[in-house]
């Protein structure tokens, strides 16, 4: 798996270890969790503003407090949202892709065609 640090100060990590997805956020302790991969359906990145909206916002001079992107962990019995304030979204996208790939492999192993 690639780099797990998606923000350095305060520290925010997202990674897989020993068949568990681990989230560590030093800024907001309630985000910290260890989730067994058997209970996860998928991970999703929910973007706050599109590139087009950001261009309009800048060009007409509006200054709004920037919204944060959200990591949504789809569980078998619900979901958990984690706010990604000032995180490296490119790294986050790559980690989410890798975790979803692991989840698909796991599903194919446990439920063959």
Task: Present the secondary structure layout.
Blueprint: E1 5-7, E2 12-17, E3 20-25, E4 33-36, E5 40-46, H1 51-59, E6 69-75, E7 78-84, H2 89-110
Could you explain the architecture of this structure?
- The protein is of the alpha+beta class and 113 residues long.
- Helix content is 27%, strand content 35%.
- It is built from 2 helices and 7 strands, in the order E-E-E-E-E-H-E-E-H.
- The protein has helices at residues 51-59, 89-110; strands at 5-7, 12-17, 20-25, 33-36, 40-46, 69-75, 78-84.
- The strands form 2 sheets. A 4-stranded antiparallel sheet has the order 1-2-3-4, with helices on one face.
- The chain starts with a strand and ends with a helix.
Please supply descriptive tags for the structure shown above.
113 residues; alpha+beta; 4-stranded antiparallel β-sheet; 3-stranded antiparallel β-sheet; 2 helices; 7 strands; 27% helix; 35% strand
Number of helices: 2
> Can you tell me the residue ranges where pLDDT is under 50 for at least 5 consecutive residues?
none
Structural class: alpha+beta
Strand order of the largest sheet: 1-2-3-4
Strand content: 35-45%
Main sheet: strands, sense, barrel:
4 strands, antiparallel
Q: What coarse outline follows from CA principal-axis ratios? A: globular
Question: How many E-type strands?
Answer: 7
Element-level helix/strand string: EEEEEHEEH
Amount of helix: 25-40%
Q: In whole angstroms, how far apart are the ends?
A: 27 Å
Overall pLDDT level? 85
Rg, Cα atoms, Å? 16 Å
């Amino acid at each position: 798996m690639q780099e797990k640090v998606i923000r350095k100060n305060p520290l925010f990590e997202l990674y897989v270890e020993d068949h568990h997805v681990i989230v560590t956020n030093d800024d907001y302790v309630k985000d910290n969790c260890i989730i067994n991969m058997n209970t996860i359906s998928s991970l999703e990145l929910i973007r706050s503003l599109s590139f087009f909206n950001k261009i309009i916002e800048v060009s007409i001079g509006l200054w709004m407090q920037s919204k944060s992107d959200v990591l949504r962990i789809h569980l078998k019995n619900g979901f958990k949202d984690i706010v990604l304030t000032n995180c490296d979204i490119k790294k986050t996208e790559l980690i989410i892709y890798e975790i979803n790939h692991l989840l698909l492999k796991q599903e194919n192993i446990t439920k063959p065609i």
